[in-house]
Amino acid sequence: MRELRLKTSLTLLLIVALTLTFMLVGGAILMYRLPRVEVEKRAELQARAESASRLLDYYTSGIDAQIKSMVRVVSRRSPAEQQVYLDALVGEGEEFDAAYIVSSSGEVQMIGLPAKSRHAAAELRGLDFSNSPLFRSIQAATESNSPIAGAWSDKYLSVLSGKHAIGVAWPMGDKVLICEASLERVLKLLKSIPIDKDSVVVTLDGRGQWLSSSLDRPQAPFFDYAGLPTFQAIVAGQALPAYEDFAGQRLLVGGTLSPQLGWAIAVATPAGMAISSYRMTVMLVFGGFFGALVLSGLLAPLWAWRISQSLNALADRAPA
Amino acid sequence: MKFVMLAFAAVLVLALTACAPPEPLKLGFLGGLSGRVADLGEAGRNGALLAVEEANAGGGVKGRQVELLIFDDEQNMQAALKAIQALVAAKVVAVIAPMTSAMGEAVLASANRAGLVLVSPTITASSLAGQDDVLFRVAPSVNEHTRLSAAHAYARGIRRVAAIYDLSNRAYTADWMDHFRQDFVALGGTVLLAATFSSGEDGSYAAALKKIAASRADGLLFVANAVDTVRLTQLARNLGWTQPVMAATWAATENLIELGGRTVEGMVLTQFFDRNDTSARYLAFAQAFRARFKQEPGFASVAAYDATQATLSALRAGTDQALRQALISSGPFDGLQERWRFDGNGDAQRPTHLTVVRAGKFQMIQ
What we know:
By secondary structure, chain A is of the alpha+beta class. Chain A contains seven helices and eleven strands. By secondary structure, chain B is an alpha/beta fold.
């Protein structure tokens, strides 16, 4: 084996000792810190999803309270008065696009529409809602003598507007009051949730159909997400998977179910280096490591030279 | 020493490249996923998605997973053209699209220029048939539907038909009307009047019905999507009209029954597929579809599933041939309900079925 000069040996010793120390300490820091960064991020995403869900609940509870009192008042009125109340409930379409009073057999008996589309009322009267999932859910609740409560729908195609809408229905004696709101308007609410630029809020209906995204140009809109493990876990109320792999990206996801609407709200961000605190930790450790390597590369020869100088002087004075 | 290091680096790079999964194969889907035609678009998207997921579960195409890129054409020409450009830029191998003939006419020139193969599950307009282009049509031509519809109307004693058709998908609806008139007149019937309306314009339903009010027809024909067909039928019933109603295949989605309820009872429509099929293959598909999407498969789902399966099958078979040639030569394909193939112009000849809405379901008419 080739013999090294004392100065070279000392230089290498110092560099290796420093590098190894930084590798061990840096590695330990990364191993300890990075999973925690992801846990913290996941908790943050979960909190955001829950906050979005609360916002929706707040909205739906407000609507429910409004309709509940409306039902109490309207059910005791004459048909002519009921029409006035329906028109007042819809107003100019601020909250609802339409309100229908439907007979127990599903026939539309009365319609409240904003003034601009009131001419369509005569066309829609008599329409049969008996196959509508919303009407059916109220009927099923009535038949099973469940406590009186409203029911919200998934998105559906509106026969009035021809666009996707959501509806809320309340039993009204032997009739049903159905109010229809534009899906767009409801989803606008979710745009108001503050979120960092790397994350996205995605709203899915109870069947896993894409409803909205906080991105201006959403990735994979109109996709059916029912097969994703995260969606399935949210719907089943189970713990979410640690990661969701989607469109070639590994994502951290927080998610929850909006209890009234049954929609799944997921907040996602790319995992790993895309998280700023994750990136910062890695950069600090590697920066420290390479900085130490450069510094030791410069200082070690000097230090080794100083040590070796004294040792060489000592060796020179020693008797042969 | 340097040589050894370089050789080691080269081996490492090669090994890493070999271990990396191959790039997914990109397939596009383009349909109306918002607005009045969303029922057709969503049903088609779900059929295509199920076929892709099954292919991926079976190992993909030549070891590559298939990625379905989904776009909404909004039943709007500009949006459809923009989507085609995006799909070309994304380097998709083919697009399962369009879902309506109007969108077919809008994007065909652009797709032809880009050499992008379009495999349409549902378009039937005869103006798009018999051409040597990039468009492949899985559904039988409109004349198959009108012949069946006209024959059934005549057989049940209808002699004078008044019709209303939608101008927003004129390539299909006007074609449907022309062929129906031709077939019905050939049998001895008369189409007294064919009024038009524009989908989405509330006033135009009443205006169209007003035009045919004095016609004294003994049968009504609506050539429109499901939402508009429900609106027209309800308005006709509110006016006290009791004549039997026929509608075009376009309206035969699950939404027609959900939105129309008893209003559409007795309505007769043609279908691309046999809803009474009890074959193991179809039943397995229907079960998988219900489990995956929590809804019944409709004609667009079945047609999109077949279109996607055929495209993937041609991609598996096509070695050196272009996809267009492979689609023509690699048939017949094992469709959900029958074996079928494309002719030299990319048109499929498949059976058409007649249904009536009875007790809230599409029932086959034998």
